[in-house]
Fold each of these.
Amino acid sequence: FPVVLSNGLGGTLLAWHYIVEHLRGRFRIISWDYRGLYGSERPARKGSYSVAHHARDLEALLNHLDIQEAIFLGWSMGVQVNFEFARFNAHRMRGLAAFNGTWGRVFDTAFNSPLARFVIPRIFDAVQERAELTAKGIAAATNTTVYLDLMKLAGAVHKNIDEKLIHGLARGFAGLDYVAYSENMKALGLHDASDVLPAIACPALIVTGDRDLFTPVSTAQTIVQRMPRAEMMVLKGGTHYTPLEFPREITTRLDSLFSRAGVQG
C-alpha cells in the first residue's frame, strides 16, 4: 500500500529515516523534492513556489504512478502541502499524519510572537538578496559541531537527537539554492488551508512537541478541533524534529493509525 512522505523545507527523505526503516519492505514509499530544492530544479516561471503548486506537483506525481489512494505523512511544510492536496483530493486519503506543522499562515503563530509575521519575511528577503554569502556561511557553520551545540542550547533540537542524522540534514541544507529556498519560505507564509480541515474525514494523527518553537502546540490543537477524525500526540521535550527525536513512540502510533485506516503491510 502506498505511503506518501511530504518533506519539510529543511530536509529530504533523511528527516524520515526512522519512519522509512519502520515501513521498509511493507509499504510502497513515495516522496519528492520541492521546486528549486535539493534534486529539483527551479521552475521556469517566477513565482511558481506556492503551496498550491507543490500540491499540484504531488497530484501529478501520483497520477503518473497510477496511485489512486494512499496514506499521507507530512512534516513541517509537508503538513500544509498535504492539506492543500486534500482541497481537491480528500477522497484519495486513506489516512493522514501531520508532524510539527500547521494549516497555514505559519508566520502568524511562529515563536508565539505577534512580531514573527513581520520579521520572518524580512529575514528571507535578506537571505535572497545575499544568497551566495548565506550559502558560504551555512556551509562553514555546518563543517563544525558548534551549530548543533547552539541548537541544543536554544531548545531548537532535543538533547538526545541522533547527531549523525542532523549532520546529514545540515550538510544537505548547506548546499541549497537560497534564492529558491527563500521564495518557497515566503510563499509558505502566505498559505492558508484552514477551510479544508473539516472536509478531511480520514483517520488522522497530529503530532507535535511541547518545545516546538516554529509550530507551537496550539496549532496542533486547532487542527484536531477542526478535523473530524483526528487524534493528537504531544511529545514532552519534543522540538520541531520529533520524527528524529522520538522514533519508537511515533512508529507505535503510526501502526495504530494504519490500523484505524484499515491498512496492513
Amino acid sequence: MTEMLEKLRFYQKAKELYSASWKDSEILMKDFRGKEVAKQLTRSVGSICANIEEGCGRGFGKEYPQFLRIARGSAKESLGWYERSKFLISIDTVSQRIKTLEEIIGALSKSIYTLENRKRK
C-alpha cells in the first residue's frame, strides 16, 4: 500500500501540507482566538491524508472514490480554515496553502471522475 500511495501526487502534496500546517498551528496557538482554528485546521488537514490512506487500504472497489470524496471535503474545509486564519498567519503563507489545497482538490476531483467513469464502461 505504501508504494501505491507514494505514486499519488495528491497524496504527496497532502503530506507536505500536513507538515507545513504544524508551523502554522504554532503561530495560531499563540493567540487565544487562533487556538480553535489550529485545532480544526489540524483535524481537517490530517483528514485529507487519512482518508486517502484508508481508501487505498480498502482496495480499489466502490469504496475508494468515496474516501477520495471525503478527502476532498476535508481539503475544502482546510481551505476555509486557512482563509479564516489570515488574521494571524501571513497573507503569503495563507495564499501558498490555499494554492496547494486547490491543487489537491483538483487532483482528487479528477481522480474521482476518472474512477467513476471507468465503472460505467
Amino acid sequence: MFTQTFWTVMAASSLACVVTTIGIVAISRRGRWARERSPYFMSFAAGVLISVSFMHIIPKSFEMNDRAPAFLLVGFLGIYLTNRLLRLYVCHERECEPVDTTFGIIPMVGIGLHSLIDGVIYAVTFNVSVLTGVLAAIGMVLHEFPEGIVTFVLLERGGFKRRRATLYAFLAAAISTPLGTLVSYPFINTIERTTLGLLLAISAGALVYVGASHLLPEVEKENGRYTILALAAGVLVAVGIVLSKG
C-alpha cells in the first residue's frame, strides 16, 4: 500500500526529472539563453543546499545517531572521490577535441549514478520528515537545470548527434532520479531511526559537496555580475524556511 509520503517523494523526484529535462531541451534548442542563465540557477541552488545542510539536515542527523559525524565525512569524501575518478577519464573544462564517444559516455554514466543517488536522497530526507525533504528538494531541484545542460554538452562534445545526445542526457540525468527514489523507497521506509540518521548524514555530506565544491566553483568560473545576489537569495530562502518552522 502506497503512503502519502511515498507520493510526496515521487512528486519531488519527478519534479527534478522535469527540471533536468527543461535544461536539456533549453540547451539543445536555445543554447545561448540556457548558458547565460545557468550560473544564477547554480548559485541560488548552492545557497539553499549549503544553508539547509548546516542549519537543519546535519543537526537532525546528529540528533538521530551519535556516529553521524563520521558518516557526514563519508558522504562528502565519497562524492568527491567519485568525481575525482571520473575526471581521470574526462576532458574537463578544457578546450580539447575528443577522439571518440568515450568522452561523452563516461561522464554520462557518472552523472547517471549521481542522479540515481539524488533519488535515494529524496527518499531518505522525506522519510525523516516532510520539512527535511522539502528543504533538501528546493536546492536539489534547482541544480537539476544546469545538470541537464552539462550532460547534453558533454555528450555533444563526445561526438553524439543532437537528437541522440538529448535522448541519452534524458535517460542519464533526468529519469534516473525518480528511478532511484522508486527503487530505494521500500527499503528506506522500513529501516530503524538510528540507521536513517546515518543515511541522512551521508546525504548531508553529499549535499554540502554539491553546493560548496561543485556548484560554487562552476559559478565563479562564469563570473556572472549578479551571481552573489542569487547565492544570497538562496541562503535567505533556506534560512527563512528553517526559522519559520522552528
Amino acid sequence: MSGGRTYLDWNATAPLRPEARAAMLAALDCVGNASSPHAEGRRARALMEGAREQIAACLGADPRRVSFTSGATEAANWLLRPNIGTPSSKPLDLLLVAATEHACVLEGHRFAAGRVERIPVDGDGIVDLAWLERRLAEAVARQGPGTTLVAVQAANNETGVLQPLAPIAGLLAAARAPWVCDAVQAAGRIPLDVKAIGRGALFLSGHKLGGPKGVGAVVFGSDDFYPEALLRGGGQERRRRAGTENVAAIAGLAAALAAATSEAGEAGRRSQRLQRRFETGLRSLSSEAMIFGEAVPRLANTTCFALPGIAAETALIALDLDGVAVSSGSACSSGKVANSQVLEAMQAAPALRASALRVSSGRTSGEAEIDACLAALRRLVEGQAKRHLVRAKGARKVA
C-alpha cells in the first residue's frame, strides 16, 4: 500500500529495491567514464565489471558473456537476426517464435516475413513440442542443422505460464538450433541457468525485478552465438554495443537481480499463498470467473483472469478510481487497453479476451493488498449486477 492505493501491477514495473537504490547512489558519486584509463575511469570500470560478475553468478554464466542493453526491446532487436557468429558464418534461414511471445520479440526481429513462423500453443499457453520437433526436423532436412533460430520465453508476461524449458532445450540441441529466451518475468523469480540455453542467449530487464528503468542485460550461453552489433561507433561492451555505459543503472540492475535471486525461494512461497487467496476469493465473486493457464505451472505472483460481461477497460477505470492498480496485460501498448494477442493465441473466446485482467504481486505485497483488490472487484461485480437489473426492469416497463 502507498498513499492509500493498492499496487498489483508488478509485472509491468516493480518498485525500486532499496539494494538497487543504494548501489545506484554509490555509482552516481563515481565521476569517471568506464572507458577512460585514469583512476576515475578505472573506478567506474570496476563498478561495472563487479555488476557484470554479480549478474553472471545469478545466472550461471561467464561474466565475459554478459552484455548490457537499455532493456528487453533492444535485446530482442539485437538478438533476433539472421547474421550471428563470425562474419564468415552462414546466415540463419528461419525464425520460429512462440505465438505468445512479447511484442518486442514478435515485432523486433530482422527476418524477412516469409522466413518467420509462429510456434502454436495449446489452450493453456504451452508451446506445441510435437509441432516444434517436426518443424525443426524439416528445417534440418532442408537446410542442415544450425540454420533455424528459435525464440521461446521462460515465463509469459500476461498469464505467468512457464514454458517447459528442459524439453525445449533437448529439441533445440538435437537440431543445433540457437535459442533466444526472454527471461524478463522469470529472472529473480524462478531458477535460471544460461547453460541450459546452450547455443543462444537469454535477456532480462531491470525494472521488472526492482532495478531501474532503461537498463537490461543479455547473457550468452556460448561463444559461437554473437549477432552483429546493433549500435556501432565505439568499442564498448567488447564491441558488441557502442555507447558510454550507464554505470549507475547497471549497478542497480545487478543489485536488484542479486537481491531477488537470494530471496526467490521465500518470495515464491509467499506469492503462492497470496495467489491462492486471490483466486479463491475470485471464485467466490463469480462462478463464471476464468483463470487463464490455471492447469499448468505459472509464476506464483501472476493471475490473468476474466469476469465475463465486464469489459477490461471498464474494470481498469473502476479499479483505478477505487485505488487499485492492475492491468489488462502487457504494459507496452502506450496505455491502451487492447485485445490480448497472447489470449488469442491460446484460443480464448473473444468475450473472455475482452474481459481479461492481470493481477501481479511483488515483494511488498501482502494479504491487505489482495483483500483490497477483491473488495474493489466485488463492488465492481455488484455494481454491474445492479445496472443489469435496472436495465431489465426498464425493458419490462417498455414492453
